[in-house]
Amino acid sequence: MLGQQFYHESIRKVIIAFGTTFNNIQLVRKDNDGNIKQSMKVPLAYGPRQKWLTRLNEDADLSKTVAITLPRIGFEIQNLQYDPNRKLNRVQKFKKVKSAKDDRLDSQYMPVPYNLNLQLYVMAKESDDSLQIIEQILPYFQPDYTLTINDMADMGIKRDVPIVLNSIGYEDNYQGDFETRRALIYTLDFTAKFYLYGPVTSQAVIKTVQVDQYTDLQDTAPKREQRYTVTPNPTNSDADDDFGFNETTSFFEDAKNFDPVTGTDK
């Protein structure tokens, strides 16, 4: 079983969809008269917040031109775990006819449910900036927000993936001297409920089904009583066709003309 190479980019698609959700948050700053003096798009990047804090704190003497731009949004993966509450029937399959060759049928077992825990953090040096960003995020999560992902392009499967907001944390690094840069950090924990898919197998279309019925299964020339043959019409796998079936039943009085090795008449 293991060793068959396949990669459907399922986890990668969830991470990209999650990041894209927060990729267009705008920040507006106004003067005392309520006039807009600055408007900017909040930058978003993948990576741990410790990396950004290190870059923020490494300019202790404030001699560098730019240490890090605030505010900003970052996110990262925390862990991955199986979700038994969303388990599907393991013996059922998805099936799809290949578009290029209508004599082949692709099939795939039902996917396996997993939860991907992600952490998103909002970092700012001004309290109003961080609150403005947070207020553009929280109203959409009650407590979940659903994304539609092209889950399995090969099988034509699209799936709704709920993104659940679990908790919100707040941290204000205000302690220190005047040369220490302040960092306001909101940490939001999310869970993405998605599915992982196994390999896709391809097989030829079944064109004939034959069933032989016996009254005796002895080693020497068993007596076949009946043969039941079913042939689909048409015999290709065009999904637009309305399938019909041709059925044939044959009865035999004895086994004199029957070859038990090949299963056919002599």
How much is the radius of gyration in Å? Answer: 31 Å
CATH superfamily of the largest domain: Myoviridae tail sheath stabiliser
Fraction of helical residues: 10-25%
Please trace the helix and strand order, writing H or E for each element: HEEEHEEEEHEEEEEEEEE
Instruction: Please describe the biggest sheet, giving its number of strands, its sense, and whether it closes into a barrel.
Output: 6 strands, mixed
Widest sheet: strand order?
Answer: 3-4-7-10-9-8
Q: Treating each run of at least 4 consecutive H or I residues as one helix, how many helices?
A: 3
Number of domains: 2
- CATH architecture of the largest domain, by name, is 2-Layer Sandwich
Instruction: Classify the beta-strand content into a percent band.
Output: over 45%
Distance between the termini: 41 Å
Walk me through what this model shows:
- This protein has 266 residues and is mainly β.
- It has two domains: 10-201, Myoviridae tail sheath stabiliser (STM4215-like); 206-265, no CATH class.
- Helices cover 11% and strands 45% of the residues.
- It contains three helices and 16 strands.
- It has helices at 10-21, 49-57, 127-135; strands at residues 26-30, 36-41, 44-46, 72-82, 93-97, 104-109, 112-124, 144-152, 157-173, 183-196, 201-204, 209-214, 224-233, 244-251, 258-259, 264-265.
